[in-house]
């Protein structure tokens, strides 16, 4: 079954969004609100499509290769908001048809496969375009470049409930499968100048950000391709997820003592049944680069608290806004010719000033609101100074 609405022929760039879930819907709302693209949103769930008001919508079985290929052909770009295991199949079809490809995957193996696909490709293949991986790589790379010699780059991100309850002090704000991958898969890092792999959940530390205490620990996928870019140029590079204190101890019990890391289907069932979802969330970001400048040891930092906001009369959570903004900004920059037009593109190839100047990326320009959604109150001047905004 396919439902099509008339397209606006004045918009030259035809964009296909795959997936009409929480993030796919946010992407569609941001792009529709901007008004510069002719959109088609495809999903197997017709009810999800009916909740959207876009130029075109199509019910699509993404596991049907023929249907998927027919949907991709004829578009300028595909924004993949499907589960991570669909990244490589969709990217393969995009490369075959010369269609620009963007996704949000945190899966390291998928990104490496897409890098291989990109060799000789006629279009841009750009995975990991969300928050982490995504914007955190852009800002981390920029901070490190401000130093004469970077020694350590530490990236911390949390998608947290604003009103935590229960022992976990956590609520689901995005994909359960993606969260389990972060907690169970090996984590890329640079240790003593060399790329390596470190265990998830290791490296527990306490953070104090604007007077609020958090904990952080290793999780997989957040660095994107930064370890490849900075190997041999920095002594330490790591990524950790930010949580409220106490979360880590319960994860250790579940994943290691009860060995649920080896039974991911059961772990997903338990989390989906016991951990509530929420739209009332906050994104916490802290990125720091330490090293030498003018013969002195200095540190450059960026910190942000980002909340949800309403777009076209629909409320988007903080994780929806930040994730969708990342991939929409990447699309804009490629279509405007500010990024390469073919081959693999890593997030660190985006200049921070270009990202922050972008109509979608600008939500990261005013970090620091803890007031009502969409009403920034006190931008962190030190953060904007640190990144040269």
Tell me what you see in this structure:
Pfam families: Sacchrp_dh_C, Sacchrp_dh_NADP. InterPro entries: AASS, NAD(P)-bd_dom_sf, Sacchrp_dh-like_C, Sacchrp_dh_NADP-bd. Keywords: Oxidoreductase. One of its GO terms (molecular function) is oxidoreductase activity. 32% of the residues lie in helices and 27% in strands. It has helices spanning 22-34, 46-50, 65-72, 87-97, 108-118, 135-145, 176-184, 226-230, 247-257, 264-274, 318-335, 352-357, 381-387, and strands at 2-3, 13-18, 37-43, 56-59, 77-80, 100-103, 124-126, 149-161, 187-191, 194-198, 205-209, 212-218, 236-243, 281-293, 296-306, 309-311, 314-316, 343-344. Mean pLDDT is 87; it is low at 1-9 and 367-389.
Which properties best describe this structure?
globular; 389 residues; 13 helices; 27% strand; disordered N terminus; alpha/beta; eight-stranded mixed β-sheet; disordered C terminus
Element layout with pairings:
Blueprint: E1 2-3, E2 13-18, H1 22-34, E3 37-43, H2 46-50, E4 56-59, H3 65-72, E5 77-80, H4 87-97, E6 100-103, H5 108-118, E7 124-126, H6 135-145, E8 149-161, H7 176-184, E9 187-191, E10 194-198, E11 205-209, E12 212-218, H8 226-230, E13 236-243, H9 247-257, H10 264-274, E14 281-293, E15 296-306, E16 309-311, E17 314-316, H11 318-335, E18 343-344, H12 352-357, H13 381-387
Parallel strand pairs: 2-3, 2-5, 3-4, 5-6, 6-7, 7-18, 8-13
Antiparallel strand pairs: 1-4, 8-14, 9-10, 9-13, 11-12, 12-13, 14-15, 16-17
Helix pairs in contact: 1-11, 4-5
